Amino acid sequence: MLRAMGDTFGHLFRITTFGESHGKGVGVIVDGCPPNLKLSEKDIQPELDRRRPGQSKIVTPRKEADRVEILSGTFEGRTLGTPIAMVVHNRDQRSEAYTEMATKFRPSHADYTYQEKYGIRAWPGGGRTSARETIGRVAAGAIAKKILRERFKVEILSYVQQVQKISAKVDPNKVTMKQIESNIVRCPDEAVAKRMIRLIEKVRKEGNSVGGIVGGVARRVPTGWGDPVFDRLEADLGKAMLSLPASKGFEIGSGFDGVSLTGLEHNDPFRATKGKVRTTSNRSGGVQGGISNGETIYFRVAFKPTATVLREQDTVDIDHKNTKLKARGRHDPCVLPRAVPMVEAMTALVLVDHALRQRAQCG
Amino acid sequence: MLRAMGDTFGHLFRITTFGESHGKGVGVIVDGCPPNLKLSEKDIQPELDRRRPGQSKIVTPRKEADRVEILSGTFEGRTLGTPIAMVVHNRDQRSEAYTEMATKFRPSHADYTYQEKYGIRAWPGGGRTSARETIGRVAAGAIAKKILRERFKVEILSYVQQVQKISAKVDPNKVTMKQIESNIVRCPDEAVAKRMIRLIEKVRKEGNSVGGIVGGVARRVPTGWGDPVFDRLEADLGKAMLSLPASKGFEIGSGFDGVSLTGLEHNDPFRATKGKVRTTSNRSGGVQGGISNGETIYFRVAFKPTATVLREQDTVDIDHKNTKLKARGRHDPCVLPRAVPMVEAMTALVLVDHALRQRAQCG
Amino acid sequence: MLRAMGDTFGHLFRITTFGESHGKGVGVIVDGCPPNLKLSEKDIQPELDRRRPGQSKIVTPRKEADRVEILSGTFEGRTLGTPIAMVVHNRDQRSEAYTEMATKFRPSHADYTYQEKYGIRAWPGGGRTSARETIGRVAAGAIAKKILRERFKVEILSYVQQVQKISAKVDPNKVTMKQIESNIVRCPDEAVAKRMIRLIEKVRKEGNSVGGIVGGVARRVPTGWGDPVFDRLEADLGKAMLSLPASKGFEIGSGFDGVSLTGLEHNDPFRATKGKVRTTSNRSGGVQGGISNGETIYFRVAFKPTATVLREQDTVDIDHKNTKLKARGRHDPCVLPRAVPMVEAMTALVLVDHALRQRAQCG
Amino acid sequence: MLRAMGDTFGHLFRITTFGESHGKGVGVIVDGCPPNLKLSEKDIQPELDRRRPGQSKIVTPRKEADRVEILSGTFEGRTLGTPIAMVVHNRDQRSEAYTEMATKFRPSHADYTYQEKYGIRAWPGGGRTSARETIGRVAAGAIAKKILRERFKVEILSYVQQVQKISAKVDPNKVTMKQIESNIVRCPDEAVAKRMIRLIEKVRKEGNSVGGIVGGVARRVPTGWGDPVFDRLEADLGKAMLSLPASKGFEIGSGFDGVSLTGLEHNDPFRATKGKVRTTSNRSGGVQGGISNGETIYFRVAFKPTATVLREQDTVDIDHKNTKLKARGRHDPCVLPRAVPMVEAMTALVLVDHALRQRAQCG
């Protein structure tokens, strides 16, 4: 969104991620962070722990501790207003599990397109196409969330709303972080969560995988964030979410279901109470004309089933010959529990950027 | 997407739109266009005619001719490689029809958020929030489409796939421009189109409105376009579509429905024939890892029902007092037929930018 | 500077210029302007009048009125926060005076490099390489100057300091707009100005040309503007000035002469009076570490002698054959009087951008 | 230049530097590098060795080995087309030498402006304002130089042309790297170099400092690089050079001296030999209309005398009280020998970016 270019995202609060799986490390530079924010690794690590492999029985059992180190941009525990570089060194690298990947393209992965585009790729562990790239995003998002929370009172949450066909009803206005973190699948509805976990365990045993839908929420966003005409808040949120690995769709407010309503049914009437304007419904999803209207922002992101399955599949090799590939090693049968902190991070990055932009133009 | 900032979109092929409804005019500057492309108003006007009001009985009857004038960037009928400025002067401006809008906010429009953000707004006709802003996009998109067609053999199409609950089945690999343009609703399925037209006429008489889904297609995109990690092709397409007025959702390939499949069912196997690699299914939607894989790119965009309805609604005024508003004047009971050229334009703008970027980094 | 790309300049206050000499018109879009600023053509036209041809006997006698029209971005005399498009239609176009230019490259002009780069060029009047392009800059700069003056109390001035070897001593802290505008060469030293005018009239009669040095000043810039490490204020000012036609050098504060001093001689000691910190000298030119320090910012820009001379010169034609060219028509024997408003405009554009950036990050 | 924003420089070949002196490390991410370029630390380290402290008796005796580590972006010794992160860990950190700096602002340094802008600064060693920041630039520049050399046959050189009042005559068309590296001051004129070295040793003993002028050269740049109107090659080079610490001026080709010539004297006549167009003089400095014309590009950069002098000076403290400061510790009596690799790096970064841009738009 904003001023993305390849590996950079954001216009005033800019992040640039780097790193390949099985390279020396992954990380991010955050530029444009306001000065004098209290910040240390303790603010970052908990978010990375929510993202990391091996955190529960339903995610990949890879044992990556993912310890973050802040290399620059802080002094005596506060941000300087200069670039904040953060790095996580790679540890658990069993390249041997992937040797077939050197010559065979995994179906519905990025192996083929990277090889064709660049004429080279770091095949161990998927290299740059690995979800390890999102470590940098989550680390940067932790800073963005902190700024939003401390300086703007904005709260960012996300949760698993659907795994394959098992769906939960979640009220974006009421869901809490405690509910979300109360179970390993990160679905705030405890009963539904249990069914989701059972499903994921089942498909894992089958060497198969499932996808689902993550819900995202931003509460108490003040009226006025978003920058028409191209940097509408929903456009930037959509870009942010669709830049996450495995995402295939984004909808805000009434989304795709809203098309079955008429205008009269869909419109959100305004009502004022003591001069405070609210809408009596929120099919707009907190955004009108690309600008926040003070209501809760909520959206949904579709994630396809993990492309890595431990079953033999048709594919081609680097010489464009037909062949078969059966993935070995460890994999996520369902990315959704680990996608939750990524969705939060990207939401926060979009919003903090717009907070600063609003301050610049209209402050 | 790419390097958008407010009213600018694109990184190497950049457009900046300007203009308010009921101001002097609207338009666009296109910067970064390759030189020596044959170009005149005749290349632009037909696309604007597909977008303009008054083109059929199911769109707004406003009589805007929308004649485009190229002010710069060409010489003797060819592009110079310098900025191409295009302007459409506003003509049919009945501000009086809107006078209530000076003080009352239309529900689910951008009146309230613009007023709150900027402390001022051009209320006649919605000002900058009017769909007239998309004239600049469509004009720029006409150039982008021409470049893609002539220099890269890429074909861009879009069509109305669903109006409220009336849905058509469309094969993205086979649909033709002729089918799409054969009826005023721009749905390639003739029988379904008739039902859609009847529905739109009905809701218009009721002073109500409906939304729907537009499908978008790009065919013969070469392998290798798209710029991970943030400028994945689907992320840039999503941003582009979600920056269009009234859009609420975007999905590519299998999209939201894909979450009900398992990984084994969802993966697209690779097969090579005489060294040419294809996938035997295309749930990826032509994009893998954010990069085109040579298959047809297809996606869907949800448009909410038009917010303008000719019925009394609850709202507030500029002093934050509760009031009622009944829109008068002319309106689109369904934006979808006119959204088709906008979706094509935005698709073309994303793709031509990535074509140039691919040439820059990997050419 | 900042986020320039081809024809766009600025990061938060962005301008994009367009237009060729002898095309339909030239102009600019200003995006990112704060809302609610009083603005009409009356704020812009005086600056264009200072830039326009035919304003005095020492500039080109071309008769261009250069009337500006604001097409968008204002409503009832105030800015909307939306893009402000401004256009000046071209009038006095005697292409016939230039027909030799269709096939012959003028020495030290951009004819050859444009032709080689783009494979095409608008040769009448120099097309995009004409100084008419700066109309857009000066129009945008008028808005920037107004914002700086009204909202930040910052004053921008520039003046002719040297014409060929005739040089004036000017105190950047004291020079006034009235002094500058008191004569047609825009040199605040009246006696020196007279000598400059005589020299320019002499070289004009000879069909020759001269260059010189323009001084630029920004007073009352608050401490804290400038964005290390790449967007140092002097780097952005330098880029801005070196993007002007015919400029060959830029220096700030002590500049090139400063290299003959030792560190002890060159350093600016700090002194505080009632808690207010000042430097007792200002060899830094108002910028330290790329950030304004509250002192007067002053710099100098070298402009080469106009390349157009009415004398026969060796050159080559479009087929790379040796030939001779003698320019006819009207020309500026010295660009400096008209460069003054351009330097002011570019200074203002840099500073207003940094004012907004400072507000965004540290506000 | 191009699309700089704070700590990012470049549009298609983008670098983002990070790091404070006395923090954990400094470094850079390079994004947009073409794939399949052979690259290892061995390509980078020699350039850092030319930049590092302690390399000779005339630079600061600080003992920093400045070993670079490539963290990402390469695989089996070749670039991947993904971000290349490089880090140099800080070692020799004697903060105690600087403790007075915690509360007192060094005259003509950035201590005061950073403190005022950000409300905080990393005072040990100057933090982000230290020349250690340029390590990232030089590392990135090494890659840019390699691309220019191997893929475009372009050669980049720079050298010390003047130290205080001791000046060398250097022919930009003939100077060689061997001449430049033949002595510790990096002046290609051996006799003049000796005088410069003696001067620097003398001022060092006096606890004083001197500045000077660095010349820069780019040879065999093809016709057509540079992107009008704002990203003229000289504008981007000027921005690049003026973003270097201690630089106060930039001039290209005839520069400031050119203003004493008339147009007839200054113009570069074109002559063709066997269809190859050259100019018979090169006062343009290889750039016309902002675009390279195939001649040698040459320019000069003024660097002020080092602000750190080992003598007592008037200054103020963090509470804005008048005080005295006498720097202790180690310092560079003259930055110029170490500025040479920085100037080369920035030149290469500008040119490689324009090479890619030219390929994108006109390739």
Order of helices and strands of chain A: EEEHEEEEHHEEHHEHEHEEEEEEEH
Largest sheet properties of chain A: 5 strands, antiparallel
Oligomer: homotetramer
- Residue share in helix of chain A: 25-40%
The CATH H-level homologous superfamily of chain A = Chorismate synthase AroC
The strand line-up of the biggest sheet of chain A is: 1-2-3-7-4
User: What is the mean pLDDT of chain A?
Assistant: 95
What percentage of the residues of chain A does DSSP assign to strands (E)? Answer: 15-25%
Radius of gyration of chain A, whole Å: 21 Å
CATH topology of chain A: Chorismate synthase, AroC fold
Number of helices of chain A: 8
What CATH architecture of chain A would you give?
A: 4-Layer Sandwich
| Biggest chain pair interface | A-B, 114 and 114 residues
CATH class of chain A: Alpha Beta
**How many beta strands in the DSSP annotation of chain A?**
18
Cα end-to-end separation of chain A? 22 Å
Structural class of chain A: alpha+beta
Q: Which of globular, elongated, flat, extended, rod-shaped describes the shape of chain A?
A: globular
Structural write-up:
In chain A, 27% of the residues lie in helices and 23% in strands. In chain A, the strands form 6 sheets. Chain A has a 5-stranded antiparallel sheet, covered by helices on one side. In chain A, strands 9-8-10-16-11 form a 5-stranded antiparallel sheet. Chain A has helices spanning 41-51, 111-118, 134-152, 177-180, 190-205, 233-242, 263-266, 336-362; strands at residues 8-9, 14-19, 25-31, 68-70, 74-75, 78-79, 84-89, 155-163, 166-167, 212-219, 247-252, 270-273, 276-279, 287-288, 291-292, 297-303, 312-316, 322-326. The first copy, chain A, is an alpha+beta fold. The first copy, chain A, has one domain (8-362): 4-Layer Sandwich (Chorismate synthase, AroC fold). The mean pLDDT of chain A is 95. The first copy, chain A, starts with 7 loop residues before the first strand and ends with a helix. Chain A is built from 8 helices and 18 strands. Chains in contact: A-B, A-C, A-D, B-C, B-D, C-D. The interface between A and B is large, with 114 and 114 residues. β11 of chain C pairs antiparallel with β11 (247-252) of chain D, so a sheet runs across the interface.
